[in-house]
Design goal:
The termini are far apart. The protein has two domains: about 260 residues, no CATH class; about 90 residues, Nuclear Transport Factor 2, Chain: A (Roll), CATH 3.10.450. It is about 30% helix and about 35% strand. Helix 2 packs antiparallel against helix 3.
Length: about 375
Amino acid sequence: MRSQIARRTAVALLASLLASPLLADRAALKAEVDHTRAEIDRAGEGSFTRYGEPETVRALDHFWVLIQTWTSEYLDAHPKASAREVEADLATLAQQGDLSPSAVRLTGDAVVIAIEWGFHGTVFAVSRALPQPFRVVWDIRAVAAKSPPDSELAGWAATVPGVHAGPLGGRVLALPPARSGRPRFLTDAIEHAGMGLSVPGQIGVWEWTGSEAIPKFLQSYLTTGGPDARLQGGRILVPTKESPRMFYTCGSCDDPQGTWTLRVTPDGVTDLGHSFADPLVQFVDDLLDRVAHGRDATALASHSARVHLTEILAGLREEEGPEDDLGLGMLMGWKVRKHGNRRVIDLETDRGRLLLTVGQRAGKPYVIAVQEPEAGN
């Protein structure tokens, strides 16, 4: 008897909840989100260029407005919701994990939200001034639409996935406030390409004025994954695919991996530069670049090694033409083997192969010999 009463009570409570105007409105809103999502998905079938057609662009704009409305209505009902609770509510709109939300509480009632969905993404902030309800007060896509087409913001207004490029999308993370006391947040995003794994990523440090976000640092880099920046103390560590000056790797290759480091202080952002995960790759690239362009490399290699490298690079110039940039082309292989207390680097590109014997000088790598092995060896 008690179980029957409990079931009846639960059914009555559910019916009461479904009859709630707020929940009924949200059910209708979710249905419209799903309908618009399906419309966009159908448009993208067969050709990514269809994401750029006016009807699809309008559908994408409408989709983001629906997401913003969903967020504003949730905060109207739960004005003190934490960033994690806002994220959890937005996650209910996902289908098989296709929508990734992140949120940061700023100051007062302001919340900044990032959504990554498929090839697309957005960042927007909602706030209220009582007795008014929550509403969108800043939208990165609207700012991007008014920016020059070659600006760092342009990717936020893009809709068409391309080759090694596409619309930006990612997440937001909280940062310590500026010295003025203004809140700051990080945008950690990548471009979503239709083809090619190597794509630009973008790091942004934004300051919240109370009505809009102002970019204090906004810069792109190359990556094959992510967004995956992490905060460590006062630093932002960004996994990268590094770009050597004297050779390159395939568009679907992860290597050479590296880290881009930024220091965030109350006064701003300092770029501490890039480092390779394998310091030997950076060392060899620096040596080749110095020799190729006639710069001092005495601290990196012996006289005989420098002379031999100069001859090899001169030969490449003759083969490729005087306008050649002296690059070694695409990296085909990189092996390091120990030879006593030295290391031998086997560097192979589509233009040739080098064996560099590396010892130590003043505790740092130092090339003492260079060879060009014969074919088949």
